[in-house]
Amino acid sequence: MSTAEENTAKSAATGPPQKQDPDEKRVGCAHYKRRAKFVTPCCNKFYMCRYCHDENETHFFNRKTVTELICTECNTRQRVQAECEKCGVRFGKYTCLVCNLFDDEDRSQYHCDGCGICRVGGRTRFFHCEVCNMCLPMQLKYDGHRCVENVSRSNCPVCLEDIHTSRIPCHIPDCGHLLHRTCFEELVIRCVC
Known about the structure:
The protein is of the alpha+beta class. Helix content is 17%, strand content 20%.
């Protein structure tokens, strides 16, 4: 990644992830711990995250379209920002204003400009392959991998769900194509050879 890309990512993702204080009040949903609800522009409803929205609506929600949120501490509706304009609470220990991602759990998050989204696992453990157009484990940079153009932009061949923005880790077979690790493990268990 170039220095310009790193600087952009650093300015987009404010504040390093920190360990959760066990005495701190934990708020959020099953998917994320955060202190803000999104005002979804597609239906003007309030949800803790895009997954909560998508589980309850008949359409999908793109979190990058959010322009407003509601502080869960003081219930103030406001523009998207890292901290509440009224009570000053930080919406997430990890905040990315490019992706509108707020998370109080340390997942070693980082924003990748190449992928266009935040990733988990730590920037030093991954590299962005320009051909595959996704972040891959650093070991594949040294051992080599078979490039497949825009590989993560296609759906998992097993469940037919999105791979690029999925929270499910990927399995990368020798052919270079991707499938969800859970789908791969299920295939191995149910082998019909």
